[in-house]
């Protein structure tokens, strides 16, 4: 059974960088069939796509965040990661990692709450 | 970026009601649309992909229709476990975008 698990600090100071890791179990992150993505949801609001990565390292980012976002993959650990720099209170959200097959996200992590506050 | 406009943003319905949620894209996306259900404190769950294909294991009371710019999610007979928020997402072009969500509440 495929599982995705987000991990990382739950509290980040303004202007610092947010770093999260998604550990994938039950499937190989190196499969050519999948993309791996990050999606976030501010408190009480809707879903926002952050970006995706392919096992080869090809990345696709939301232009609204592109200047601050880096998504990377570590195939040896079956993990992929998100780094968001220069965070503000507007980056407070639940962050989800998910697996994408062409035109849908079929498996999601449970989500991790990240609060930006001093 | 392609904008997805869902309507209504919320609705109240009774068990057994037929519910229709619409999603309109700002430009044509063929059938590259998925629908998700999200309950409070939980991750979204895939219901429909490719606009009208039901994910395995999802009850048949859920169905999707549409192509191009206009899409719908239909719940034929609302059940107690269906009270949740529903989102559409387009996969035609980057950036991938979501609709604003439709909250289905108990009348």
- Helices and strands of chain A, in order, run as EEEEEEEEEEE
The largest sheet of chain A, given as strand count, sense and whether it forms a barrel, is: 7 strands, mixed
| Content of β-strand of chain B | over 45%
Low-confidence stretches of chain A: none
SS summary, helix count of chain B: 0
Shape of chain B: globular
Describe the 3D structure.
The complex is a heterodimer of chains A (118) and B (107). With 118 residues, chain A is mainly beta. Chain A is built from no helices and eleven strands. In chain A, the strands form two sheets. In chain A, strands 2, 4, 5, 6, 9, 10 and 11 form a seven-stranded mixed beta sheet that branches. In chain A, strands 1-3-8-7 form a four-stranded antiparallel beta sheet, with no helix packed on it. Chain A is globular and about 40 Å long. Chain B has strands at 4-7, 10-13, 19-25, 33-38, 45-49, 53-54, 62-67, 70-75, 85-90, 97-98, 102-106. In chain B, strands 2, 4, 5, 6, 9, 10 and 11 form a seven-stranded mixed beta sheet that branches. Chain B contains no helices and eleven strands. Chain B has 107 residues and is an all-beta fold. The chains are: A mainly beta (118), B mainly beta (107). The interface between A and B is medium-sized, with 22 and 25 residues.
Can you describe this structure in just a few lines?
Chain A is mainly beta and 118 residues long.
Key features of this structure:
heterodimer; A: 118 residues; mainly beta; seven-stranded mixed β-sheet; four-stranded antiparallel β-sheet; 11 strands; B: 107 residues; 50% strand
Draw up the topology in text:
The complex is a heterodimer of chains A (118) and B (107).
Chain A: E1 3-7, E2 11-12, E3 18-25, E4 35-41, E5 48-54, E6 59-61, E7 69-74, E8 79-84, E9 93-101, E10 104-108, E11 112-116
Parallel strand pairs in A: 2-11
Antiparallel strand pairs in A: 1-3, 3-8, 4-5, 4-9, 5-6, 7-8, 9-10, 9-11
Chain B: E1 4-7, E2 10-13, E3 19-25, E4 33-38, E5 45-49, E6 53-54, E7 62-67, E8 70-75, E9 85-90, E10 97-98, E11 102-106
């Amino acid at each position: 059974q495929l599982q995705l698990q987000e991990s990382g600090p739950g509290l980040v100071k303004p202007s610092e960088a947010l770093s999260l890791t998604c550990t994938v179990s039950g499937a190989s992150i190196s499969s050519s069939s999948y993309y791996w993505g990050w999606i976030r949801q501010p408190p009480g609001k809707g879903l926002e796509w952050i970006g995706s990565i392919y096992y080869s390292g090809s990345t696709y980012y939301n232009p609204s965040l592109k200047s601050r976002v880096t998504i990377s993959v570590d195939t040896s650990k079956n993990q992929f990661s998100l780094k968001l720099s220069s965070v503000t209170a507007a980056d407070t959200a639940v962050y989800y990692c998910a697996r994408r097959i062409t035109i849908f996200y079929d498996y999601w992590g449970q989500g991790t709450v990240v609060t930006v506050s001093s | 970026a392609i904008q997805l406009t869902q309507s209504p943003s919320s609705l109240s319905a009774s068990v057994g009601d037929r519910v229709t949620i619409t999603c309109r894209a700002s430009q044509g996306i063929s059938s590259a649309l998925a629908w998700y259900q999200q309950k409070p404190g939980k991750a979204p769950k895939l219901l429909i992909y490719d606009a009208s294909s039901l994910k395995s294991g999802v009850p048949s009371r859920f169905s999707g229709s549409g192509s191009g710019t206009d899409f719908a999610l239909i719940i034929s007979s609302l059940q107690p476990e269906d009270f949740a928020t529903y989102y559409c997402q387009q996969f035609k072009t980057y950036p991938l975008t979501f609709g604003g969500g439709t909250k289905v509440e108990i009348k």
